[in-house]
C-alpha cells in the first residue's frame, strides 16, 4: 500500500503542473484578442496586404479548426488585390499535424485535471481535515517546485537562443518537415512570424510561473499555519 501511495503522489506532483501548463497554452493560443495585439504590433495586415477585419476573420477560422469545430482550412479571403485562397497546401498539411497536437494536449490536460480531482477527493473522503490538508499542502509545494524548475530552465534557454529551441521543439513533436515553410508561398509563416511565437512562449511561461509561485506560497503558508496549530 505504501508503494502505491508513493506512485499516486508522484503522479500528482507531475500531472498537476502539466494540467496548469496545458491550460495556459490553450488560454493564450485561443485568445483572439492576443492575435489582434500581435498583428498590430508586427504590422501583419500591411505586410500580407489585407485589412485587419479580414485577417481576424481568417484567424477565427483557423482557431475554430484547431478547436475541432471546423473540418478544414479550405477558404478564400479578401486581399488588397482581390480574393485568394488564404492557406497554401503545405500550410494546410502542417496544420493537420498542429491540430493533432492540440487534440492530444486537451486529452492530457483533461486526464490530468481528472486525476488531480480524484486525488483531492480521495484525500478528504472521511478523513481528518487538518491532517489531510497538510498532505495536500505538501503535495502542492512539491508539484509547484517540480513545475517551476524545468520552465525556468526553458526560459533561460529561450533567452539564449529562441530559434534553436523552437527548432528542437518541432523536431521532437513533428515527424515530417512540413513545418519548414517558405515565406514566398506559405502564408502561415507570414501571419505567425517567429517574433509572435517568441511573445507567446514567454507570455505562457510567465503566466504559468505566476500560478506555480502562488501555489508554492499558499502551500508553504498552509503548512506553517497547520504546524503551528498542532
Written account of the structure:
This protein has 230 residues and is mostly helical. It has one domain. 78% of the residues lie in helices and 3% in strands. The chain has a two-stranded antiparallel ribbon with strand order 1-2. The longest helix has 45 residues. The model has no long low-confidence stretch (mean pLDDT 93).
Question: Features of this protein?
Answer:
elongated; mainly alpha; 8 helices; 2 strands; two-stranded antiparallel ribbon; 230 residues
Summary, kept brief:
This protein has 230 residues and is mainly alpha-helical.
Rg value: 22 Å
Question: What portion of residues is helical?
Answer: over 70%
Low-confidence stretches: none
Instruction: Give the H and E element order.
Output: HHHHEEHHHH
Mean pLDDT: 93
How many domains is the backbone divided into? 1
Main sheet strand line-up? 1-2
- What proportion of the residues form beta strands (DSSP E)? under 5%
- What is the count of DSSP helices, taking H or I runs of 4+ residues? 8
How far apart are the termini? 27 Å
Largest sheet: 2 strands, antiparallel
Gross geometry: elongated
- The helix-and-strand class reads mainly alpha
Number of strands: 2
Show the helix and strand layout.
Blueprint: H1 2-29, H2 32-41, H3 44-48, H4 52-66, E1 76-79, E2 82-85, H5 89-124, H6 129-173, H7 188-191, H8 194-229
Antiparallel strand pairs: 1-2
Helix pairs in contact: 1-5, 1-6, 1-8, 2-4, 5-6, 6-8
